[in-house]
Design a protein that fits this description.
The chain is an alpha/beta fold. The protein has 9 helices and 7 strands, in the order βαβαβαβαβααβαααβ. Strands 3-2-1-4-5-6-7 form a 7-stranded parallel β-sheet, with helices on both faces. β1, α1 and β2 form a beta-alpha-beta unit. The radius of gyration is 18 Å and the shape is globular. It starts with 8 loop residues before the first strand and ends in an 11-residue tail after the last strand.
Length: 264
């Protein structure tokens, strides 16, 4: 299927590895020019080198997207589209796991800033231009914890749920939906990434079990019998960005191998 994205510009956060890289790769395969962002310059450049093999323009910006200076570096990168992105995939690293009793105000503010306010700033900077050009796709990578909270991920549960509520309102405005601009959230379940490994480590420390035991138990709970891959996640992201997905907005898409047990 031709997703109708060739020649468009995308911004992908956290794109040096994991789910962000999976999204950038799938978009580049569709002929999209991509600005990839992450804090680690070495890993980011390695990702850019791999993506450039797909034949589109790939610009790498080593910056902290949660800061005003980091976002300014994106808008002003040489050869980039400024703020005139057709696609924005927001993806800042999740806050650390732990016990809510140990989190002070600073920890909460940092989580909200990275996982709620930063995506809102990126939306605010790009969405009106998308509406003027009659095309725009914004994908927020959040977490399955929005629908099924995880006790040790309280910071993530709270901040990402706040973003979900914001998107539910803004995505349905006539200014955006009526001008072919969609905003959707992708709620990854258990994908085989560094983030999952961190969660497994925290669970092992909390329970005293081995990492292998934790991994095996969690994998067995998934009806699909395995963890997801970044490639699979990226393919879903690319479809949501496609011209074919223009009638789909304000939704929370949950790729989790069937783990979530609810009807809605």
């Amino acid at each position: 299927m031709d997703l109708g994205l060739k020649g468009k510009w995308a911004l992908v956060g956290g794109a040096s590895k994991g789910l962000g890289f999976g999204c950038a790769q799938s978009l580049a395969r569709e002929g999209v020019n991509v600005v990839i962002v992450a804090r680690g310059g070495e890993a980011l450049e390695a990702a850019a080198t791999e993506l450039r093999k797909l034949g589109t323009t790939i610009l790498a910006v080593a910056a902290d997207i949660t800061t005003e200076q980091g976002r300014e570096a994106i808008w002003t990168v040489a050869g980039g589209p400024g703020k005139n992105f057709d696609i924005v995939v927001t993806n800042a690293g999740g806050p650390p796991p732990g016990d809510f009793r140990t989190w002070d105000r600073e920890a909460w503010i940092k989580a909200v800033d990275a996982n709620m306010l930063t995506p809102i700033e990126l939306i605010k900077a790009t969405v009106d231009g998308m509406a003027d050009r009659k095309f725009g796709r914004i994908i927020n990578i959040t977490s399955s914890a929005v629908k099924a909270p995880i006790d040790i991920l309280g910071l993530s549960n709270g901040a990402r749920s706040g973003l979900t509520g914001f998107v539910a309102g803004v995505a349905r405005t006539q200014k955006l939906a009526g001008n072919n601009v969609t905003i959707n959230n992708l709620l990854p379940g258990k994908f085989d990434t560094d983030r999952l490994a961190t969660t497994h480590k925290a669970a092992a420390e909390k329970t005293g079990k081995s990492l292998a035991d934790i991994r095996g138990v969690q994998q067995a709970q998934i009806p699909a019998g395995r963890f997801g891959t970044p490639d699979e996640f990226g393919a879903i992201c690319a479809f949501l960005c496609s011209v074919q997905a223009g009638y789909m907005t304000g939704q929370n898409i949950l790729p989790d191998g069937g783990l979530y047990p609810g009807t809605f």
